[in-house]
């Protein structure tokens, strides 16, 4: 599909480049993608774009500098003309407001697309509206390619492959433990989380289902925690059911499972469960209460109003230098699908990125776009449609390792 697009003016356009995550993504591109990349930064404010372009030039003066494209994505015709000029589009706009506009423009102009949208409610809606059309047009749409849910999806994909390669076995469960992920959110993240309150209780309840985004249903029933919401794993240690994005990541990974044959690849009994590392039951219970309190704060109207007084607004986020010095780390165990669980071969996997969640996100977005641009090898023979980060498979893993991430698997 990309072969007839080589005459396009840009290899890559970043739409929403002036936002908090967009700026980090553009910076990663300037620092790490090939210096002859033809690219553009797009947004609705010329002043912000000029300021960003000046910063990018200072950082990397010897590369092709990005063109500036001023566009309000609600102006469909202008957006369409822009997207038509690019082979790949990274979208980092406020997805709940204007995410669909960019997706539609990409399908119409056969431009591959990648974003970090994480709301399962929006992704479900986009699957219903755009998956078939994108598949027919041969356009790739990859969502959730940020700190949530790219490393989780790729660790799972790599572990499943390891069990298949070494033991010719399918996977029964992937248990993931979040070791470290800073919880200072950006204004855009807060806004997305608050959007959930706009949906009715019934819809929110349905969105919790493990197979909500998958084309077929799997067999998961429980997340194996005890009365206190705790689980113990012999390799991962104490785990509490308090990982803030466990539901989103599980839905995305189960979509990968479903798209890759609904069991033919990962296994018919596969399920994904995510937890936070907890040093003791008391610490785990505290983590669970903390996560619940954050959820209530961001969804119940009077509490939301109070929260808004001290949380960052759209465009803002944690101090960039501070964010850069955080670390994202997670580890996982994949358990083979055999009758005797105790004798089941296991694969231990580990991911670490030397930067906070927003720098991790910028790296995944930029490297994911590079994978689409330079290789475009899609797992499972996919030709297009609404896919997940794991569809970029080994190529994205190599690229992310190339910019300092550790992503490894070993038999244990
Ligand atoms: N999955 C993950 O791991 C992950 C990680 C990071 C972020 N995210 C998600 O990414 C999204 C962005 O977060 P953020 O913190 O970067 O938000 P942000 O700083 O508020 O940035 C939003 C961007 O959208 C642009 N925008 C909004 N409406 C527009 C319009 N009509 N036309 C053109 N541009 C428009 C804004 O432009 P202006 O600059 O002109 O206002 C800004 O550039 C959020 O939904 C967040 O949840 C996900």
From TrEMBL:
Any single biological process term in GO = glycolipid biosynthetic process
> Which residue ranges does the record assign to the Saccharopine dehydrogenase NADP binding domain?
13-142
* GO cellular component labels: lipid droplet; mitochondrion; plasma membrane
Question: SUPFAM superfamilies in the record, alphabetically?
Answer: NAD(P)-binding Rossmann-fold domains (SSF51735)
Q: Which family does it belong to?
A: Belongs to the saccharopine dehydrogenase family.
Q: What is this protein called?
A: Saccharopine dehydrogenase NADP binding domain-containing protein
